[in-house]
Amino acid sequence: MKALEGIRILDMTHVQSxxxxxxxxxWFGADxxxxxxxxxxxxxxxxxxxxxxxxxxxxxxLNHNKRSITxxxxxxxxxxxxxKLIEQCDVLAENFAPGALDRMxxxxxxxRQINPRIIYASVKGFGPGPYEDCKVYENIAQCTGGGASTxxxxxxxxxxxxxxxxxxxxxxxxxxxxxxxxxxxxxxGRGQRVECAMQxxxxxxxxxxxxxxxxxxxxxxxxxxxxxxxxxxxxxxxxGNASGGGQPGSVVKCKGWEHDPNxxxxxxxQAAAFDxxxxxxxxSDWLDDPGWNTPAARLSKLDEMFGExxxxxxxxxxxxVMEVLNPLNVPCGPVLSMRELADEPSLxxxxxxxxxxxxxxxxxxxxxxxxxxxxxxVEVTRSPLLGEHTGEILQDVLGLDGMAIESAREDGAV
Length: 414
Ligand code: COA
Known about the structure:
This protein has 17 helices and eleven strands. By secondary structure, it is of the alpha/beta class. The protein has two domains: about 10-205 and about 345-410, Rossmann fold; about 250-330, 2-Layer Sandwich (formyl-coa transferase, domain 3). It has a six-stranded parallel sheet with strand order 3-2-1-4-5-6, sandwiched between helices. Strands 7-8-9 form a three-stranded antiparallel sheet, with helices on one face. The longest helix is centred in the middle third of the chain and has 22 residues, at about 165-190. The chain is elongated, with a radius of gyration of 26 Å. The two termini are about 30 Å apart. About 35% of the residues are buried. The protein binds coenzyme A. Coenzyme A (COA) binds near residues 71, 72, 103, 123 and 137. Coenzyme A (COA) binds near residues 96, 103, 136 and 167.
């Protein structure tokens, strides 16, 4: 049995943020019914295609384990079917532009009237406020949620990260909101509205930077590369690759860095492991030197310290550095490329990287479920073709007969 078996989700999500959420719920065993516009479906089916006329990896990697029904919710017959689906589902998830579901004729009040037990879960770019009507994509959320202003180097522009903290990050927040609301429904018998704004989700993930904003009013941020010589302005600055935690850290070059853009390792010079680190890099002289042998003494010389560490790491591959420093309890991690991650046997073994078969595309790699549950194992199955399960859902979930299904098709409702 899977954790969410018996839960049915009416999945009106598209692009990345919403699909991330419903894919997770599908992996946990929910029956996720993806509603797509007849003819075109989720726009990402056709975006960034690598093979002509085949659902893109963008789509296939975000819509595993779901069923697809085509439905035009703007047509009269489509609306009737939509109402029946709302009656039969536990959750309605959507990430349309603000007001889109209202314009279809389904504001929250109406949805709640149709099914008082339903959980209506939405992702929007912003919460109530000056920008509430705006459409938002990933990088806009990274910029408006504090990610970009705090990422990059002091002398460079604001920078967005490769991790999709706006889209996938908000999808994760929404998934938590949904399962929490399902839990509360066990006690109240009622559904509720769950809303996650991408700006809020990104800001939540940038919590430590708001921490630093407040610390800044009490003096310079000593672990930032701007200390002791650079200037601090009024806002949390970009801190390059500085660790951001209580322990100094940095990315340093390893052997081969001249031609391999990922020949780097991240090293944290944690106080508890500093002796071993100093000895390993041939600087045991630091250990008797009051200018080096306390964390406070080192704070103003972090650049110099990591420069010395780098002289040593440049003589070894990132994996050798890892092999030497790990037994010394020095926290460190190689910068792994997507290629290295795709090939990493341990990630294949745990199902974090999976190979999935698709009837038209053939086999492809995907990221499997990153949450491992001992009582709810995940089996990743391929994304559905557009409308693949329309007949099956109309018949099994809504109990429509062959004639009703045929007439809905003739109407263009499905
Ligand atoms: N049947 C009929 N109409 C449908 C439909 C269906 N099954 N599915 C979607 N539509 C309609 C919508 O009702 C909407 O019509 P309207 O403009 O008349 O209200 C239209 O399709 C377009 O939907 P919309 O959400 O506006 O898509 P978009 O491509 O213009 O915008 C986003 C895309 C992502 C910018 C926007 O959806 C958004 O801001 N979403 C919230 C934030 C978000 O999740 N962003 C991250 C995306 S990864």
